[in-house]
Design goal:
Layout lengths: L7 H6 L10 E8 L2 H7 L8 H9 L9 E7 L2 E6 L10 H23 L11 E8 L2 H30 L4 H8 L4 H12 L8 H5 L1 E13 L5 E12 L11 H4 L2 H14 L6 E4 L2 E5 L3
Antiparallel strand pairs: 1-3, 1-4, 2-3, 2-5, 5-6, 6-8, 7-8
The protein binds guanosine-5'-triphosphate (GTP) and magnesium ion.
The site of guanosine-5'-triphosphate has 17 residues, from strand 1, helix 2 and helix 3.
Subcellular location: Nucleus
GO cellular component, one term: nucleoplasm
Family: Belongs to the tRNA(His) guanylyltransferase family.
Length: 288
């Protein structure tokens, strides 16, 4: 093919950054100006369960099989791509732009279903960054960091809004919480509001982890004989990441299942979720 005289604009000016091989890739998406966006859409304070569920429906494990784990809280979500992924040849700009645009589109598409009586008043938009982590320890530490952040923010916000709802101004509430430890905050909730922080929804305290679990099913083969088949189930859990088992890759990162997952998910899951729970925790299959 003969190149035109203008082809140099691509050859000489366009550069692709490829993310280093043999590293887990984390894409973190964060809502832009969600302080204003949540106010404008009257999200409940400090946590709006529906808004968080809407974010969960955007977790892209079904769309992109190379994403093996996602963690979200507040207006952010982190997506972990398996370490050997060849998704778009590991081109950073492709990975980031696809993830953030897909996430945003699903957020807008699913809005009406989650908030049937709320008009979407302005377009939500998100930023995204990609970071590479060389091993499971650093991935686990990364996710633990995000979860600790979720805990610190949620505990602060729970106290802050309880104080404001009880009649303090926002400035007074801020002053009351200045310099308080985590233990002080728990005591404040217990003494002033007879609240046990641990009774708050696990989704608020621990954020949402999305991953595939294996389910064994008996299906009929081509000859009509029953045979066992393992299928990946997309699961959302509100659990401690620090104790989560990433080490046995088969638990969450079964690569052969990964290849199958995109088509199987389609076939397996209608639009409705089922759930089960105990205590303040529960798990359910994500409606996609
Ligand atoms: N009321 C309410 N607000 C929420 C909820 N989840 C997120 N937010 C808001 O979203 C903000 C997220 O924090 P940031 O990402 O630091 O703030 P931001 O306004 O999005 O700022 P940038 O990310 O820098 O654009 C919180 O401070 C809240 O104001 C929710 O469930 N309820
Ligand atoms: Mg934000």
């Amino acid at each position: 093919m003969v190149n035109s005289e203008y082809e140099y604009v691509k050859r000489e000016f366009e550069f692709d950054r490829r993310l280093p091989p043999s590293n887990w890739i984390v894409v973190r998406i964060d809502g832009c100006h969600f302080h204003r966006f949540s106010k404008m859409h009257a999200f409940e304070k400090p946590n709006d369960e529906n808004a968080l569920r809407l974010m969960e429906t955007c977790a892209m494990l079904k769309k992109f099989p190379d994403i093996v784990f996602a963690y979200g809280a507040s207006d952010e979500y982190s997506f972990v791509f398996r370490e050997e992924t060849e998704f778009y040849n590991r081109r950073e700009s492709k990975i980031l732009s696809l993830c953030v645009s897909y996430f945003t589109s699903v957020y807008v598409m699913k809005w009406k279903k989650i908030f049937p009586n709320k008009e979407l008043k302005e377009p939500p938009y998100f930023d995204a960054r990609a970071v590479c982590y060389p091993n499971l320890k650093t991935i686990r530490d990364y996710l633990a960091w995000r979860q600790v952040d979720c805990h610190i923010n949620n505990q602060y916000n729970t106290c802050f809004w309880m104080l404001v709802k009880s009649g303090k101004s926002e400035q007074e509430a801020q002053l009351s919480l200045k310099g308080t430890s985590s233990k002080d905050k728990n005591e404040l909730l217990a003494q002033q509001f007879q609240m046990n922080y641990d009774d708050e929804l696990a989704m608020f305290r621990k954020g949402s982890s999305v991953y595939r679990e294996k389910e064994e099913k008996v299906v009929k083969n081509d000859y009509g004989d029953p045979m066992k088949r393992t299928r990946p189930i997309l699961t959302v859990a509100h659990v401690d990441i620090i104790g989560f088992s990433f080490d046995k890759p088969n638990d969450a990162v079964d690569l052969s299942l990964m290849n199958e997952s995109a088509s199987l998910m389609m076939e397996q899951y209608p639009d409705i979720a089922f759930g089960y729970g105990f205590g303040s925790e529960y798990r359910y299959v994500v409606p996609i």
